[in-house]
Amino acid sequence: MAQAYDFLAEWFEFLNDDCDYSSWSQYFIEGLSRYGAGKRGLELGCGSGAFSRALAKAGYSMTGADRSAAMLSKAAELARAEGVRIEFVQADAARLNVPAKYDFILSPNDCFNYLPQSALHAAFRSVARCLVSGGIFWFDVSSEYKLREKVANNMFCDDRDDVTYIEIDRLLGDRVQSDVTLFVREGELFRRHDETHTRYIHTGEEIYAALGGTGLEIVKFEGHLGEAAEGSDRLNVICKKAQTLSINR
């Protein structure tokens, strides 16, 4: 069985053409300005780079980081096609280790759902180390409501001319396992590819607890595109790294 996104990377944005990346990106652009973020940013779990490209076009100096080599390859391809200059690096959200420090780190669209609860605190600490003093950390997760009530024990399909997508989801306690099958056209035939995704369910209380002692202070907790968190499919957590005081002697 392939790793998550080994084959889906090529088709990810194409199959998600109904999620309105434009409005979603503008939500982040307006929010980063409102919270006073600087211009140097890292998108953690960048996938194929849709948000990094939008932010770069809005004047931000962007780096995209992802664990999946296939996703990074696709992200670089799409950035070149759109004439956008972005640095892409392979990195793991569970133990982020990059040489630079950033004004903000943005991690949208479920990156931290791929980490178990036991890994969150250490992951958040590593993010804090990669931010400048006062830097913004903005991440989201698919909510418990969405994963338990809408996704778990369900099946999703998308049939296009060149690719067919089938996802079968099972609830396994604190996580949802998604068995994904792609049928991709090769000439007159279709080749089958299978991969498995595991998304962990994180409640608001668990996220608050995991952020404790990391140096990241919660500024705002809201639902998708700024709606109320309760009942939303997505929870956005906006944090700021505590300011470091300098003492003149």
3D structure, described in words:
By secondary structure, the protein is an alpha/beta fold. It has two domains: 8-142 and 203-241, Vaccinia Virus protein VP39 (Rossmann fold, 3-Layer(aba) Sandwich), CATH 3.40.50.150; 147-200, N-terminal domain of TfIIb. Helices cover 27% and strands 36% of the residues. The protein is built from seven helices and eleven strands. The chain has helices spanning 12-15, 21-34, 50-57, 69-81, 117-129, 144-151, 204-211; strands at residues 40-44, 61-66, 87-90, 102-107, 131-142, 154-159, 163-172, 175-186, 189-200, 216-223, 234-241. The radius of gyration is 18 Å and the shape is globular. The mean pLDDT is 95.
Features:
249 residues, alpha/beta, Rossmann fold, 2 domains, seven-stranded mixed β-sheet, 7 helices, 11 strands, 27% helix
When the domains are counted, the total is 2
Assigned CATH superfamily of the largest domain: Vaccinia Virus protein VP39
Class inferred from helices and paired strands: alpha/beta
Secondary structure: number of strands: 11
Gyration radius over CA? 18 Å
- Poorly predicted segments: none
The CATH architecture of the largest domain can be given as 3-Layer(aba) Sandwich
Number of helices: 7
Largest sheet: 7 strands, mixed
End-to-end distance: 60 Å
Strand order of the largest sheet: 3-2-1-4-5-11-10
